[in-house]
Amino acid sequence: MTAAVIDRLDHLVLTVADAARTIDFYVRGLGMREERFGGGRLALSFGRQKINVHVAKEAPILPRAAQPAPGSADLCLIAAIPLPEVEAHLKREGFAIELGPVPRTGATGPITSLYLRDPDGNLVEVSTYG
C-alpha cells in the first residue's frame, strides 16, 4: 500500500458569474467568512479551508482549470451544527432546499445531507455525521 501523500484540502476554486451574489449565499446562508487577499481577490473561509472565488468574465488567474464555468461544481460541506438547525436557518434566510434530509455516505462513513443550489447552480450538499 502506498503511503498517503495528501493531508487535507486547503482550498478550491469556484468560477462564478456574480461575486456579490455568491458571497451573499455562502456568508448569509452557510456562515462562511468573506476574505479579501492578494490585491482584492475574493475567498470564502471556514475552518481551516477556503473557497477562492473567480469571476468568469474577469481576467483569469493562471494557471486555471481547462474549462472553468459557473455552475459546474458539486460540493459536500460538513456542518458544525445539527442538520435540523441548518435546515431551519436556510429556510429563514429564504434559501430553497432541493432535497433532504437524506442518508448518504461521506468520506469517513454515513452522513445525512441536505441539497441546495448556489446562485450559479452549483450543487451544495450540507451534511452531518452521526
Automatic annotation (TrEMBL):
Pfam families: Glyoxalase. The keyword Membrane does not apply. InterPro entries: Glyas_Bleomycin-R_OHBP_Dase, Glyas_Fos-R_dOase_dom, GlyoxalaseI/FosfomycinResist, VOC_core. GO terms for molecular function: dioxygenase activity. Residues 8-129 form the VOC domain. Coiled coil: none annotated. Keywords: Dioxygenase, Oxidoreductase. This is Catechol 2,3-dioxygenase. It comes from Falsiroseomonas stagni DSM 19981.
